[in-house]
Amino acid sequence: MSIITENPRYSCALGGAVATAKNIYGTIPIIHAGPGCGNQISMGQGSLAGFQGVGYIGGNALPSSNMYEQEVIFGGEDKLNELIGSTLEVVKGDLYFVLTGCTAGIIGDDCESIVNEYISKGYPVIHAATEGFKGSSYYGYEIVFETLANKFLKPLPKNNKTVNIFGIVPYQDVNWQGNLEEITRLLNRLGLKVNSFLINKQGIEAFKTSSEAALNIIISPWIAESLANIYKDKFDIPFIRYPGLPIGPTASSEFLKQAASALNIDNDLVQKVIEEETDYAYTYIEKMSDIYKQFRFAIIGDTNTVIGLTNFLINDYGQIPTVAIITDEPKEEYRDDIIKELSSFEFAYPPKVVFSDDRYIISTEIEKAEPSFIFGSSLDKEIAQTLGIPHLSVSFPITDRLILNHAFAGFRGSITFIEDIFRG
Ligand code: SF4
User: Fold this and answer.
1) 248-262 and 267-285 are packed helices; what angle lies between their axes, rounded to 10 degrees?
2) Cβ(101) to ligand 1 under 6 A?
3) Do 166 and 138 form a contact (C-beta atoms < 8 A)?
4) Quick check: CB of 12 below 6 Å from ligand 1?
5) Relative to the CA of 40, which ligand 1 atom is closest?
6) CA-CA to 82 of 20 to 30 Å: which in 148, 225, 251, 331?
7) Torsion over CA of 283, 286, 288 and 292, rounded to 10 degrees?
C-alpha cells in the first residue's frame, strides 16, 4: 500500500543525478523530461541547501526537452535529438550527460540510440536512465557514478598513494563541499592524492584515471555498494566504509587510522598527524569551556549527518542524546548496522533511533523525546519554536542560512559546529 509523506527531505532520482553530474566539473546535464522537472529539481536542491545557487548550468539554464502532450503521444526522440545538437553548439563542456525523467521513461523513448549516434560522430555524450520514480536523490547519485564507471574506466597501473572518496551526496549533505575539502586535507596529510570528483574542479578527467586508486573510501553506511563493487570486480580496488561523517577528534582519528591501515601507511606518520590535529582542535574547543552547557538533544537528518554529529556530541562534547531521526530512507538491509552505530557510547545511553522522512511523524517523535536542543533542518524550526527550545539547521533542507564552504567534518569542522551551537 502506498503512503503519503509530508515534506520529504530529498529529491527524485533525476534530481540527485543532475546535482551530481553538474558538480563534476565540465559536465553538462541535458534532461529529457517534463517542463517542470528541471526548475523544480534545481530550486529544490541547491537553493534549499543553504542558498548554494544553481551554478554554471543549473536552474533555468539547464538544457531540457520540456516534454509536453505532443511528445507524450508521438514520442520525444526528435526533440531530444534536436536538444543534444543545440546544447553541443551553444554550451561549452567536456561531457554531455543525458538524464531521463519520468515522462521519457514511461513512454519508452529510445534515448540510448540517439546518444549512440552522437558518440559515433565523436561527441562526448553519455546517457543514464534516471526516471524520478526509480528512487531518491541517493539513487541518482549512485547511477551517475556507476554509468561513468562502466563507460570510462579502464585498467591502469596502481598508484598506492591514490584514493577515491564516494558517499557524500551534493546538497543532501548541505556541507558537502566543505566536508569534502576537510576530508581531502586530512588524507593529504597522510601523503595521499584524493579524488573526490566534486570539488577542486577535478572533473571527468580525474574520474577517468580513478581506476589507478589503491582504495575506495565510502563515507556512508549504506550507499554506493554497486559502485564500489564495479571498482572491486573490474580493477581489484578494495573499499572500506566509514559509516557516517567523521566529525571531531575521536571520529576523525578513527577515520585516519582505518584509511591508513587499509593502505599500510607508516604508523608513526598517522600518530603524528592525529596528535597535531587533536592538539589544534582542543586549543579551540577548550576556549569555550567557561560557557559550556549540557543539553538533551534531538537530531534529524541524513544518516551521515546524524551518525557524525551524534558521535561528536556524545563522545567529544559530553551531551545527552534523546532521539535520532534518519530521513534519507536507507535500504532495510543496512538499518541494523546504522542502529548499532548509534547504540554503543561509553558515557551516554543511546538515543531512540527512528527512520522516517514524514514531518508529522518527526514532530511527534521530537515532542515525545522532550529535548532541550534540536539539530535538524529548517522544517524542524517550527516544532522547536512550539517547544520553546533552541534549534540549529544542520541537515537538508536549509533555508535560514547561507552555506558555501561550511564544514562539520574532520577536526576543524567540529570547531565550526561548536561555534554554530552558540550562535544558534
Ligand atoms: S519525480 Fe519525475 S516528474 Fe517529478 S521532478 Fe522527478 S523526474 Fe520530473
Assistant:
1) 170
2) yes
3) no
4) yes
5) 5
6) 148
7) 160
Q: Cβ(37) to ligand 1 under 6 A?
A: yes
Per-residue pLDDT tens listing for the chain (424 residues): 577 888 889 999 999 999 999 999 999 999 999 998 998 888 888 889 999 988 888 888 899 999 999 988 988 999 999 999 999 999 999 999 999 999 999 999 999 999 999 999 999 999 999 999 999 999 999 999 999 999 999 999 999 999 999 999 999 999 999 999 999 999 999 999 999 999 999 999 999 999 999 999 999 999 999 999 999 999 999 999 999 999 999 999 999 999 999 999 999 999 999 999 999 999 999 998 889 999 999 999 999 999 999 999 999 999 999 999 999 999 999 999 999 999 988 788 999 999 999 999 999 999 999 999 999 999 999 999 999 999 999 999 999 999 999 999 999 999 999 999 997 6
Q: Domains along the chain?
A: 13-152 (3.40.50.1980), 162-269 (3.40.50.1980), 284-423 (3.40.50.1980)
Q: Which residue among 64, 133, 137, 139 is best mutated to probe the pocket of ligand 1, counting the most ligand atoms within 8 A of its Cβ?
A: 133
132 close to ligand 1 (CB < 6 Angstrom): yes
- 369: helix, coil or strand? helix
From 32, 64, 102, mutation site for ligand 1 pocket: most ligand atoms within 8 A of C-beta: 102
Tell me the C-alpha distance between 263 and 407, whole Å. Answer: 26
